[in-house]
Fold these 2 entries.
Entry 1:
Amino acid sequence: MDLSAINPVQLIAFLMVAATPVLLAAIGELIVEKSGVLNLGVEGMMITGAIAGFAVTVETGSPAVGFVAAAGAGALLSCLFVVLTQFALANQVASGLALTLFGLGLSALLGQSYVGVKPPTTPKVEIAGLSDLPVVGPILFNHDLMVYFGIALVAATWAVLKFTRTGLILRAVGENHDAAHALGYKVVRIRILAILFGGACAGLGGAYISLIRVPQWTEGMTAGVGWIALALVVFASWKPWRALLGAYLFGGVTVVQLNLQAAGVAIPVEYLAMSPYLITIVVLVILSADKSSAPAALGRVFHASR
Amino acid sequence: MKLTTLLASAAMALGLASGAMADDPTKVGFVYVGPVGDGGWTYEHDQGRKAVEAAFGDKVETVYVENVAEGPDSERVMTQMALEGADLIFTTSFGYMDPTINVAKKFPNVKFEHATGYKRADNVSTYSARFYEGRAVQGVIAGHMTKSNVVGYIGSFPIPEVIRGINSAFIHAKKVNPDVEFKIVWAFTWFDPAKEADAAKVLIEQGADVILQHTDSTAPQAAAQAAGNVVTFGQASDMAEYGPFPRVSSIIDNWGPYYVARTKAVMDGTWESVDTWDGIAPGMVGIGEITDAVPTEVRAEALALKDAIAAGEYFPFTGPLKKQDGSDWLAEGETADDGTLAGMNFFVEGLTGDIPQ
């Protein structure tokens, strides 16, 4: 056993990177669910974003353009979900699953000519002076832009939901769409915007995996991150900061357990392997003891005639 | 993922049903653990499937289902294939072993071929490749190439096939470099690029400058490439797109000839349950080009070892060898028998860490 081989500073910097994809997807889904819609298509939108971002980055040479394209692709795919659930009034669970299957297949098709291609490197934001500080430098000031974007998005989501009229309307639609409708709010329009936002965030999360975390394109490379994001939203009781905590816990424990394994710590590997899931769930369940519950209209179909 | 697989198998059933109109060709099914585009393990099995199609043309019809989880899901997929009239089914991952046996009992007229397992029946054959022969060659290169004397190894599951590979690589790395140390990380997945990349990064961070992988995607190659000074080896497939550096060589699985031969046997009615375990000599295990990043004399040494193994002059598990706990395993000049190798569940002396049981 050689714990000195583990560098805690590198570890924290590394976990922020590992947590970013699931965080982005979870924040998007949180907004969607706050508006009363359950979209199980996160995995499908992520993988579509992953290939769209990858392909565009390779073709244009610009990761920034790639991320924008990934957000666009995720949102575009979620339009399918919009049509099915908001206009055709189809079952949201089935539509979401269909979206995941469709996304996985579509991405495999689109990605055929991108297997084994190396994408241009996404630059890190280096702040003169700050990035070189000991401890704080590598943790806070030596990341790519998307890590900061993820944290900023959490803060913005929290502020909008808590303090603004927009957030109030969104929550009203999610809690009781009939009442919101009676007050004159466009329930369907608000939900569509929420779903598109969720799609864009999932697309960004996917692109983060294919462009920065791995970085390459491989079929099915999101490997279940979308489902973890969905679970995270529930365990975080639909609260943005808890989603951030959950994502960092999950990413952190994943990274720590790999580090412990490599350092040869004498804990059975099975316990280490399940620890990310276990610890994240336990912590978030304890936190959710304050009786915060799901948006009341979550998953229910809305039609103005009823 | 379960629903995904279920729906995928349903979709496949539709595909099979429409295909049944044809002039009764021999139907061959393939069950894959990852996507065909993984660039590694499943990719090579799918190349084997394409070889079958190329060899028999209209006389054969192949179907495959990818991303099938090991366990009950795979049983459903196999049952569906058998119900839809498959004559021969290749199940291409270790975790399909019990499901294959279960389904084979229900369909005595369908032939099954299970990769890397050890349970057989009248209508179940097993086949595998002696990857450890390739691992020996990798071990020699790894032992020479490491400057930090730390070699990282990404294991998938603690099954005999993976443990054999670790032992073989370690024995041969140690032979050329007595100071070498292996750091092993178990990923508990065959295919999860993000996790594989994380594992590689962790190993690199902890000082490894050579990474060996026994997982299916090319993600560790990308992680090594980003690190800049880390050597890797292609796993299952050549992964040549990451050459000449970091990927300096590879183990290539070549299933095509075997799949063609077994399909032919079913067509001719000569199919029998057999246990095939081929290595470098018959061509089931290939060593990918050793690139210029490897010094000439190291390359020569690695190739000489490969030739000796192919010629049957050298056996990778030759005594004297001790087990990890210091007890004797093989005496001077003694070689391990196939039974011990097939069920290998111990590390050899010098490796650290426990095998998850």
Entry 2:
Amino acid sequence: MNPVKIISGIAAPFLRINVDTDAIIPSREIKAVSKKGLSEGLFSEWRYTSIPDRTPNDEFILNREPFNRSVILLTGDNFGCGSSREHAVWALQEWGIKAVIGSTFGSIFYGNCIRNGLLPIQLSTDDLQKLIDFVEKDPESNQILIDLETLSINFGSSEINFEFDKKYQASLLEGLDEIQQTLKLSDEISSFEEKHLKQNPWL
Amino acid sequence: MAETLFDKIWNQHIISDLGDGNDLIYIDRIFLHERTGSVALKSLEERGISVRKPSQVFATIDHIVDTLPGRGDETMMPSGSQFIESFRESVQREKINFFDLNTSRQGIVHVVSPEQGIALPGITYICPDSHTCSLGALGALAWGVGSSECEHALATNTLVKKKPKSMLININGIPKDGVTAKDIILHLISKHGANGANGHAIEFQGDTIDRMSIESRLTLCNMAVEFGAMTGIISPDKKTIEYISGKAFAPEKGDQKLAKEYWASLKSDDGAHFSKVIDIDASKLNTYVTWGTSPEHAIEIKEKIPSIDQANSSKENTSIKKALDYMGLEENDAIRGTKIDAAFIGSCTNSRLSDLRVAASILKGNKIAPGIKAICVPGSSKVKKEAESEGIDKIFKSAGFEWRESGCSMCFFAGGESFGEDERVISTTNRNFENRQGKKTRTHLASPATVAASAIKGEITAAHLTENET
């Protein structure tokens, strides 16, 4: 995973509530056993007026200037609820989204973001509203800068801070691979396992 | 200190405290399907890592496969066979326990798992599928993960995880005739929101749960994820132990005594702390159906569709308006009597034998309304066979239902088969999201009884006359 430290650019306020992962990447857009080739299917039901022809729906936010160059999504409550499909994260990333900022996220989606370096930031609705107000004034010029090291979001002359799990902050900053990290604990896992299976021999 | 059921299982599985609130948790069992399991296994292979303990990993084919009679690896979805074949190759290479197509143990992962004794009380259990929370019904700590976390668990038998907050849902009282686990969970989600349990693991307790069958408990826990929870869990009791006994992968005779001793300890202590408690009087509930595009958009069948102004906030207001537009419904209209085009009985929520029996008892001697497309997809090959031995298939077929092979089928539109544009479907599934069952398909979630009764009438209705009269 590539390290994540600073993310800055255009933010799109996409504030529908309960946007599920079926909407982010519909099942039938997942056409291969692969983490790639998914950006075309991103939000396909909303993004295209005709899916087979890929005719863009000009009303959809990510098809409009300047949001077609967004790197940050400002999201409504419970963004990423529903199916566990990690393809939702892979599709967002391949399209160009590097961070999602919202009040709550579907919990599996949140974990999937972390493991792929798509930065999920949870803010209070008040703080989120400040970002929305700022962006909506002038989406092209009013860009947002996120610094994962200082856990801060800079917009205009203002700054807000956000909370983030320290362990995941460190892994993202260094681009660490979680499996490799855990494999270093193999001896500890094996000795736990031996004891555990002795206690629960039916497993 | 008094512990919750969740705490007890969690603590039993902590290998190491990784700091900052994260624990390294041992994972006892993993279940995979061809949709998300295929990509996890392929990715591991590309990294040159093999499955650490294949005997603890199980796999079946349910998500992409067709459910029409005579099906094989070729699917209506153009690239479906690639998923099935790549998955089969990977699970065979890794020597994972595999319930392939056209074998007696195949079926929807969350239906197969309890019926084969794979999910057990007190174990940690994951599957790269959000409805894994179903298995909490047996007292397992079971939750859905993404592909990357699944890879991690396959490679190490562990996950790095922060303990969630705890929530207690107390359900007491004897439900009225026809009010099922599905109605109770839809009530809960509609009252507290689709993210009402965000960041929490929930435990269901109360005398309604004590009386509930294991299969109904599976329905209840299945939709914990639609409530935003990491999982739902129910303390194992006598019914649980009876249910597990004799299942293919359950503890064998010699281990049973030890297992039962452990299982008996699996309940929340008196005075255990929960971050949030919700009480439900089940005797006051009626049957539920959804009107909108989120499981939180549920009302009693006798109620009216909410008005847009009723919303608590402008955000909710927009959400109601959007949902009504999509569903082709008007605010303040009655939901009962809404004409339907199709009925679907299936999915990991409501496709077990008891669900099919309830639907069959309503369909017996009746015909579905003219022009209605009605499909029943048993949850597993075992459920299908058992239902057929009771003659349930004949009741469904003579009522006008299609009787399918098991799989996830049209619970979601995998690409091959779907309901039509603007078609209104009453469905025993778990998600009424936009475009979930087909492009522009309008889904109404309900219990098997409600779906069967509505199919006969050709419109949304409750199975029990008393409710229709009120």
